[in-house]
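[job 0412] stage=fold_complex status=start
inputs:
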Amino acid sequence: MSNSVTARRSRSRFPLGGWESSLLVLFVLQVLASSFSIPGFFDSFSSWLGLTENFLPFGIVALGLSVVILTGGIDLSVGSTAGLGAIVMAELWLHLGMPIWIAVMIGVALGALVGLINGLIITRFNTEPLIATLATSFIYRSVGTALAGESPPSGFPDSFNALGQGAIGGLIPYQLILFSILAVLFALLMSRSAYGRKIVMVGYNGDAARYSGLRVGRIVTSAYVISGAMAALAGIVLAAYYSAVRPDMGDILLLTTITTVVLGGISIFGGEGSIGGVVIAVLLLGFLRQGMLIAGFSDMVTTMVTGAILLAAITIRNLLSGRGTGMALLVRRFRNLGRDKLTEATK
Amino acid sequence: MSGNRSFLTIGQATFGRLRELALLPALVLLLVIGTLISPSFMTEANIVSILGSSAALAFVVLGESLVIIVGKFDLSLESVVGIAPAIGAMLVIPKASMGFGIGLPTGIGMLVIPLLGGLIGLLNGFLIVQLRLNAFIVTLAMLIVLRGILVGAAGGGTVFDMPDAFLVLATNTLFGLPLSVWAAGLAFAVAAFVLRYHRLGRALYAIGGNAEAARAAGIRVERITWGVFVVSGILASIGGLVVTGYVGAINANQGNGMIFTVFAAAVIGGISLEGGSGTMFGALTGVLLLGVVQNLLTLTQVPSFWIQAIYGGIILLSLMLSRVTTRS
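[job 0412] stage=fold_complex status=done
writing structure:
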């Protein structure tokens, strides 16, 4: 069994490797171009690294969401989970006087718990992940709003705020360190561990995975637990970044994160893609957006560019993958059309 | 083979019937509870207000249901709700009220609204049907792009001072009900009739059930699916016009987040995300159920943020219910 999984992986690795390296080249080109053409993009190495503080929470969510999408599912509740985790953390700190780092841990654990609920609903009731997590996202959002009350907590201790705004030696942001550690962990977990191979196998062919004796339900559920925990962590980092919490603070996360995961080369059907690609996509999209904002483009233009990139990415991926017969068919049809016209004309 | 097929259809029909039968008592029960809880619930004014506030959602749910029945997906409908009436209005009104200042006749502005909705559906259809891209991703990208365009066009502000024609669906009444309610009811009636009795409607179910089999049976799968995207775009743009009528202005965030409620209504109404099953009657019941629940919660002064949780609970409940009905 392990042989068949390895075989599939090595076959699938080739085109994905190509995708990742193209992304990497794009990223390097984009950073170079922005540094030379946008004043303020690269004033100093530390300010350039500091730009990452604006988008790494998206990256943290993207790592967790990648695992879910690799299983062939989707988690629409990441936004509400981020808000809920941050609010619970803040309320525990403010009203129960809990040390903030303990509250942070409880917040992340709560994220894992709501992820577990998502996973159980999806696997036990055999429901569409899209609808199940849509429903739970409604519920988590309401609970978060109820807990936050009229005036949500703000003004956290400086030691906590440093998680979102601070940098070691004024150079490397804590966020970047956190994200790097998580990214390496996730990459190792997905590509080097038995667990990662099970996730990929479940996503590639759930029935085959079940017949070969994998506990599919348990594996899928675990993916949602990971996604929930990462979402809550991202919410807490956002809380440190703003030094405030709001129940709707996670709303911006969802769409951008799905874009990032897909751009990173993870197939929306599951079973294909790597964490490396997602990490590069996080940096590519993040720096692109920051660069455009610094260059004075409006939020609208940057939003549109994100959407356009998503479209371009999926079109190109479709062309490269075996599934992309659609484009080839279309080209052939147009060519035939031209030929028909030609023959008609010559008649 | 053919015996097997007819068995399947019977199974699906009974399943749909069961869902409808399960939903109606739920709706009736809610009405009874409402009457008991609040004296102002069963009044004519309140019923009209429930229907009126459900009309916009009804149009979008109708469009989304058609797309889901053919086995596809359209997230971008919520952006159409915002952008179609906004562009239509901005072509007409002066610069001072956030328009383009072109000053086109009102009629043309009104015509642009469904046209734009249809055009966006056409584009979605091209990408999904012809290029065979994943509908979820394509319409997600479309949603992001359209949202950006709307914010850019409206400059992040509010479009206001529109001619009365833009508001007429919500402000004018016929036999005591707003025009929007009649229009939504008519749209649902037509869709229900076509889906049930017309060849085209049966084709939608066939495509959603098994596109290859439908193709083999001589159904023009590509053309019909593409058409469904166009129709749902148009329906969403009309839904947007209804929203505009009720609000009296167009915010740059009109429609944002609406798609989640749309899916909720469709799923509660028994439209299966796998495609090929679900009825218009069910979808309409889903819309009304959400409308009544929201109204009841407002009347009983439940804090507004719990409404979402209750929606979520209803979705989960109806998902579990559908599991039970399919197993039996």
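[job 0412] summary: Chain B touches chain A through 42 residues (CB under 8 Å).
[job 0412] exit 0
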